[in-house]
TrEMBL record:
Protein's recorded name: DUF4878 domain-containing protein
Transmembrane segments: 29-53
The keyword Transmembrane appears for this protein: yes
Keyword vocabulary terms for this entry: Membrane, Transmembrane, Transmembrane helix
Bias kind Basic and acidic residues: ranges: 1-12
InterPro entries to which the protein is assigned, alphabetical: NTF2-like_dom_sf (IPR032710)
Gene3D superfamilies: 3.10.450.50
Residue ranges of the region described as Disordered: 1-23
Length: 168
């Protein structure tokens, strides 16, 4: 039998050479993919439920808690928020004679803000944790003087499960 142009012998195309059609795929062939998809879906649902049930604070590392405590203290100064500042400060500091009252706190920080702008913290580094006590180096500067960055060693202590800024 002569071949026409464009015709191809089945054996050359990789298909069966006896003219039989390739069988249609069955559900059995898809089974491994369906199982893998089910495992991935169950894992994703489990992670989602874990994030919904477990509070964000519980998922944060100790270093992140310390960074938040330092940030809260400086943010309270920027916002002249005495209540928030007290909440971010350790009990020993609150009980000291040198801890400012509300009027003094607001006045000192208002003057600083008017002269220098807000406090900006680009980095909190070198966090060292020793039980319920930690130290961190806070790199900061004022809005008005970004080139005069300062580094302050800050002590942070854990009280009743929360990290608080302390002077010693």
């Amino acid at each position: 039998m002569a071949k026409r142009a464009g015709d191809q012998d089945r054996s050359e195309s990789g298909g069966p050479s006896d003219g039989q059609a390739t069988p249609a795929p069955t559900w059995k062939a898809a089974w491994p993919f369906l199982v893998a998809l089910g495992v991935v879906a169950i894992a994703a649902i489990g992670i989602g439920i874990s994030y919904l049930i477990r509070p964000a604070d519980d998922r944060m590392s100790t270093e992140a808690h310390i960074q938040h405590a330092v940030n809260d203290a400086y943010t309270a100064r920027n916002e002249l928020d005495y209540t928030r500042y007290r909440e971010a400060t350790c009990a020993a500091e609150l009980a000291s004679d040198t801890f400012p009252d509300k009027d003094t706190f607001v006045e000192q920080n208002r003057v600083s803000f008017e002269e220098n702008g807000q406090i900006v913290i680009p980095e909190i580094a070198d966090i060292t944790v020793n039980g319920d006590r930690a130290t961190a180096q806070v790199h900061w500067h004022f809005d008005e003087t970004p080139d005069s960055e300062q580094v302050t060693d800050v002590v942070v202590v854990r009280e009743d499960g929360d990290w608080k800024v302390c002077t010693s």
